[in-house]
Amino acid sequence: MVSPRGAGPQTGVFTDGATVPNPGFGGWAAIYVIDGKVVEKRCGHEPNTTNNRMELRAIIEAYTMMPPDGVPIYTDSKLCVDSINDWAPGWERRGWRRHRGEIKNLDLVQELFALARARPDVQLTWIKAHVGYQWNEYADRLAGAMVRRVTHASSVPLSTS
User: Catalytic amino acids?
Assistant: First the structure.
């Protein structure tokens, strides 16, 4: 865990996901930063999803944009970090089953777990949300912008001509 101090980490891939409402219109963002400079950013949206699916999608994208020399991936989703770092190995051993109930978003969890396993040099790290960390806040704003984009796109009537 990274504790709140100033601008926060300045190297890594920072991710966030959002929906309005939940479930509802969703957006995600992943921003690759080295020494406080944006190297690459990716973002996207879905019309009918959940916040957790958007968080997972953002982290999956973070792994796909990872350089050969891994950098940390930062997310404000404790659920995602715990799912991949702590719970997924046991779920896999049990045939992708939990002791109680289903594993939500299993398709994305399995995809992300495979990516994480293939990159043991990359640390998936929880970062506290909304405490002023520059790049976490930027990922949050981009994910929110993607929600607004899909919300707007779905409210625009289709032309009949």
Answer: 16-17, 55, 76, 130, 140
Please return the burial class of 11, using the count of CB atoms within 10 Å of its CB with bins 0-12, 13-18 and 19+: middle
Neighbours of 160 (CB within 10 A): 4
DSSP 8-state assignment for residue 103: -
- Per CATH, the number for 12-153 is 3.30.420.10
94-136 tens-digit pLDDT: 999 998 889 999 999 999 999 999 999 999 999 999 899 999 9
Q: What pLDDT is recorded for position 126?
A: 97
Q: Which pLDDT score is estimated for 18? A: 97
- pTM assigned to the model: 0.90
Using alpha carbons only, give the angle 68, 72, 77 rounded to the nearest 5 degrees. Answer: 135
- Per DSSP, what are the bridge partners of residue 47? none
For residues 138 and 159, give the distance between their C-alpha atoms in angstroms, rounded to a whole number.
35
SS3 94: coil
CA distance 96 to 34: 36
